[in-house]
Amino acid sequence: MTSPSLWQPLTLGRLELEHRLALAPMTRNRANPDGTPGDLVAEYYGQRASLGLVISEGTQPSADGQGYLTTPGIYTPEHVAGWGKVADAVHENGGHLFIQLMHVGRLSHPDNTPHHRQPVAPSAISAEQDMFTAEGPKKTPVPRELSVAEIQDVIGEFRHAAASAIAAGADGVEIHAANGYLLHQFLAPNANQRSDEYGGTIENRARFVIEVARAIADEIGADRTGIRISPAFPLGGLDEGDTEAVRAQYRYLVGELAKLDLVYLHVHHLGDDELLSSFREVWPTAVLVVRYGRERDGIAADIGNGLADIAPLGRFALANPDIVERLRTGAPLNDLDPATLYAGGARGYTDYPTLTPA
After folding, report:
1. Domain 4-340 sits in CATH 3.20.20.70
2. Which of 45, 68, 181, 264 is catalytic?
3. Residue 292 catalytic?
4. Closest CA relative to residue 185, chosen from 117, 124, 105
5. For the chain, which terminus, N or C, has the lower number of CB atoms within 10 Å?
6. In the chain, domain spans
7. Cβ atoms 160, 75 nearer than 8 A
C-alpha cells in the first residue's frame, strides 16, 4: 500500500481527478510515418487511462518540430483524426488526455523530418548529439538560427497545434519547455547566444517560452494549458550555468508564467529542493513533480511534504497498465523491458500483463 496522500481527489482546471497519480509523457516511436497516431497508440493510452491525467508523448506542432522517427504530430487533419481515436479511448476508460507539444529545435536531423530541411534553433550551434536515423546514428547538424519573424511563426505553430489538440478531443495540452528541446534551448546560455530581444539577459531568454504559453492560453484557455520545465538538466548538450544562475533564470520564468494562471507546472526535477520550494510559493495552481530514479516507496513523498500535488509516473506506468490498482493493493509490479522502448509494434507497448487478464 502507498501513502493516503496519493488517493485524495483533486480539481485540476476543468477536470475532477480521483487521485494524485498521472501518466508522465514518454516518447514511444509508434506513430505512422506521417506522424498520425494509429489504433495501437489509442490502445496504449486507453490501457493507462486509470491514471486519470494522461499526458501524451511529445507531439510536434510542425514539420520543423520533429526530431525522431515515427513520433506523432498534431498539425494536419490526419493527425487530428488519429488523436481523436486516442482521446476517445482515454475517455471511454475514465481518463483525461493532455497532449504534450514538443518542438525539438536543434535536436533533429534532416533525415527524420518530412521536408528534410536543416533544423532550427535560437542560435546556429550544434547540439553535437547522436540522432538515430533510418540509416543509423548520425550527428545532429548545425541548426539555422530563427529570425525574429520566424520566432513569431513558431509561436503561431504552437497556437495552431493547441487548437488542433482540442479539436481532436483532448482535454488540454502540456507545453514542453524541458529536456533539451527548443524552448529549453532558448533558456540555456550555451545554446542561445542571440543579441536581440530573445537572448542575452534572463528576461530575454525567457521571452519565447512566456510568449508561447500566453499564445496557447489565449487560444484554448489557461485552464487547459500546462507546462513542463527541467531546471539544470544537461540533456541535449545544454548548460544552464551554476546553481545560482539556474535559480535566477527559473525563478524569473516561473514567476512570469504564474501570472498566466496556467493549470499546472510540471517539473522534471534534478534535486534542488530550495528551487522547487520557491516555485511552490508563487505558483497558483497544481504542481507536478517527476524525479529520476524515484522508487515505489517514494512516489508520494513530494505530495506528502507539500512540494507537489500530483506524481506523474513514467517507467512504472509503462510496464504496468494497471499501475493504479497495483499501488492501491500493494501488488507486485512488472519489470520494464528496455529493449522494446522504441522498437515499434505491440511488444513491450500494449502487451504488458495486468492483474486481471483482459
Report:
1. yes
2. 181
3. no
4. 105
5. C
6. 4-340
7. yes
